Amino acid sequence: MNRERFLLESGGLRGHDRNHRLDDLRTRRRHRHRGRKGAPVEPCERAEAVADAGLIGDRYFDDEGTFSDREGSDLTLIELEALEAVEADENISIEPGAHRRNVTTANVDLNDLVGEEFRVDDVLCRGIERCEPCSYLEAHLENQGVREALVDRGGLRARILEGGTIEEGSEIALEP
């Protein structure tokens, strides 16, 4: 979708009169046994975002994540609506944070933000690529079918261009 059509049809995000927001925020600390995967994802009310690094306290900030060398690992996002659709369409319930993304959004079409700049409150980000589900997620959740159910709705990898504080309830807006 081109930018002009995106802005006209959606008002910048999903719906003109909707609250485009950060619904849930989590960090993944490195596993206490270096080199092991599966450290728990922890909820937090707010986090400091650092340009070209990530969220302070997150394992990707410390270059300890599986995809640390991949651009866009600063911040990962998933849509609340996608999680609800997976539950409704596939009868697969994904508990908060189990998807292993930093941010769950509400009323934000993340696929349309690939290549776009957007703000989470005062933090400027650029959508880098879709965050498609991996086999590790399916194994971690011990739920066959979750990987396939999240294809094209697994979220977004984003680079942080300008840091600041993000918190639950933060407004998400397309950068003009």
From TrEMBL:
One Pfam family named in its UniProt record: MOSC
Domain of life per record: Archaea
InterPro entries cross-referenced by the UniProt entry: MoCF_Sase_C, MOSC_domain, Pyrv_Knase-like_insert_dom_sf
Transmembrane domains' residue ranges: none
MOSC domain boundaries: 42-175
Any one GO molecular function term: pyridoxal phosphate binding
Cross-referenced Gene3D superfamilies: PK beta-barrel domain-like (2.40.33.20)
Name of the protein in its database record: MOSC domain-containing protein
